[in-house]
Structures are given as C-alpha cells and as structure tokens.
Q: What sequence folds into this?
C-alpha cells in the first residue's frame, strides 16, 4: 500500500494491492481529495475492508450503493422522521437510476431523471427540488469519499418551486368554524382554538404540556415538537429551528377553553383510575396517553366533512392565524417572532400578498407627504 502526494494537502493517490493474477499483482487506485492524515485513514480503511471481505471497487459502485452508504452515514445527523422520509425518496430515485454505475452518472442522466419525474408523476415542485438536494448532497459526499472527481448535478439548475396560493380560511370561514365547534367535544374545540390563536405547527401543539401554559401570565411556551415513525413510534424532538423556540401570549378566550378542557381531562382521569396512562401532554388520547401527531388533522377533517366547510389542512390553520394577524395590522416583525420563523424575510416571502394593504398604505402616506399644500 502507498499514499502518494499529487497536490500538497489537497490531493493524494492511494495504491492498494487487492489480489493477484498468477504472479501479477492487481492494484486498486484511488484519488483522494483532502489532507495527508485523512488519506492515510482511507488507506487503513481499505486495508480493514480487504480483511473483512467488504471492500468494493469504487469504479463499480452504483448510484443505489452510494445512496445506501449515504443514508447510513447521515442517519445519526437527521431526525428519525427525516431519515425515514429520505429512505423513501432514495427508493424512488433508485427505481429510475439506482442501477447505473456512479462513474456513468452524468448531466444527461440526471436531466432525464428530473424530466421523467416532472412529466410522468404527480410529485410537487417542492418534492422534485428535494430529489435534487438528495442527489446533490450524496454526490458531494461521494467526492469526499474519493468515489468520483466531480459532481455532475452541480451543473444542473436547481428546480424552481412555483409559488402557490396559501391555503387558509377567510375571517368568514373562521367564524363558521368557531360556530360549529360549539357542538363539538372540548378536546376538538381546544386544539383548534389553540391552533388558530397561536399559529403553532401541528407537532408543536401535540408536544405541549400543561407546564408550558402560564394561565396567570397568559403565555404559552413552545420549545419542542412531537413526531411519529413506524420504527420509533411517537417521540419528542426539538422544534424546527432555534428561532422556533418561543414564548407567546394567547387570548383569554383560548385560555378559558383550555381551563374547561383541563377540568374535563382531570375528571376523565378519575373515572379511568389506573387505566389512565398519565401522559404529561395537554392533548392526549382517550386513555391519557400521548396523542398521535396525525390526530389533529383527523379531527379537523372530521369537522370539515360533518359541517361541509371549506377543506384545508391542519397546517392551513397556521396560515390562517398568520394571515389574520397581518390583516389586523400587527407589525410583521412581531408576527414573524410569534410564528417562529427564522427571519422576517421568511414571513414576507410566504405571506407577501397578505401584506398588500400594508404596502398600499405606505403609498397613501407618501402621497400625503409629497403633495403640495395649497397656499
């Protein structure tokens, strides 16, 4: 074995004897991009793989083998839900180009792949963009691992997401929803009121505990989320981003409904006795266990069908909350922080058309300022 420097601290050639053809030694050559120390580590890794009979000649590795290795490498970095999701998307990629050797993956192959899923599937622009990100990230990792020299995906323009109209309720729709909730269980009423009031994400709402509410200060602390995967079941994780951790004020109406719901929950606990599962969450299943994060969506869908309301997703209640705040004239900076957005530009980008009245008002004020007063 040998490690030969080709470019100081940037590029090395690793030569490895992987077998013999008679008396002739068969060598495997690998170009490694990185430092000398890492190149030597790669050399040792090959040596160990040869001992374990797990060594793969890199110029024969397929796209599927790369994605499998990349998924294994990334598993500890991602949340469990992200990992499960990416396993699914990699399966889709593998059905089309997984059999192709990595050395044969080029711009044309990738462009044909994107064209195929764009024209012959119902995947959204966002999903197609996610395919691009997966392929791009995996191929960049392949360069670091010394499998390929360059990333053909980097020469392809990232697919654009066509902006869609935000899915939300108008004030009139909200009024209809609140009216029908008077006929529904307190749990349903509480979870929808809280979603409309706080604008919190579904997983954030399901993750709330009673300790997160301060009834005296009228505040709600959002610092965790709940997700579900088949392998892990229901589990708690951190919020989406660091800025998603926040403390917000909520209305007296919502607080009063939550107080009633808490009282009802305690009564159910007494009725069930030792059958009660003692979850610490605000929203639980009928036996006091952790609520599945899909349950709020099922609750809203049930109410929409029952009363023939406009169909929106549970996440649409978050959009509704934010749009109502914008239409009420609340400052964008306040709305952004309350929503847990990473920056005010995110709020403006997603809800740009809701700020139209605000922008028009600026023009009206400027018109007043710039108008000449009659003498």
A:
């Amino acid at each position: 074995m040998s490690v030969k420097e080709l470019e100081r601290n940037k590029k090395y050639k690793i030569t490895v004897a992987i077998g013999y053809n008679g008396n002739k030694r068969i060598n495997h050559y690998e170009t490694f991009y990185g430092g000398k120390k890492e190149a030597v580590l790669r050399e040792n890794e090959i040596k160990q793989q040869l001992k374990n009979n797990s060594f793969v000649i890199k110029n024969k590795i397929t796209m599927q083998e790369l994605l499998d290795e990349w998924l294994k490498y990334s598993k500890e970095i991602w949340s469990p839900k992200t990992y499960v999701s990416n396993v699914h998307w990699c399966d889709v990629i593998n059905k089309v180009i997984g059999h192709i050797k990595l050395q044969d993956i080029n711009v044309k192959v990738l462009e044909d792949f994107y064209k195929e899923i764009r024209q012959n599937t119902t995947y959204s622009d966002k999903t197609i963009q996610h395919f691009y990100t997966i392929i791009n990230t995996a191929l960049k990792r392949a360069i670091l691992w010394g499998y390929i020299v360059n990333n053909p995906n980097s020469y392809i323009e990232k697919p654009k997401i066509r902006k869609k109209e935000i899915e939300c309720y108008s004030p009139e729709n909200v009024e209809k929803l609140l009216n029908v909730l008077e006929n529904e269980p307190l749990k349903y009423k509480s979870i929808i009121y809280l979603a409309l009031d706080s604008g919190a994400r579904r997983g954030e709402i399901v993750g709330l505990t009673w300790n997160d509410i301060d009834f005296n200060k009228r505040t709600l602390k959002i610092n965790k989320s709940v997700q579900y995967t088949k392998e892990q079941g229901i589990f708690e994780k951190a919020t989406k981003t660091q800025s998603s951790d926040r403390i917000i004020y909520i209305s007296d109406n919502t607080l009063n409904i939550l107080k009633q719901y808490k009282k009802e929950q305690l009564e159910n606990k007494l009725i069930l006795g030792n059958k009660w599962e003692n979850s610490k969450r605000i929203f639980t299943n009928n036996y006091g266990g952790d609520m599945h994060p899909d349950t709020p969506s099922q609750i809203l869908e049930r109410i929409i069908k029952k009363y023939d309301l406009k169909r929106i997703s549970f996440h649409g209640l978050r959009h509704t909350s934010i749009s109502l705040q914008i239409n009420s004239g609340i400052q964008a900076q306040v709305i952004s922080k309350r929503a847990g957005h990473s920056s005010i530009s995110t709020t403006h980008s997603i809800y740009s058309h809701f700020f139209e009245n605000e922008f028009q008002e600026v023009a009206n004020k400027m018109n007043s300022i710039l108008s000449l007063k009659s003498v």
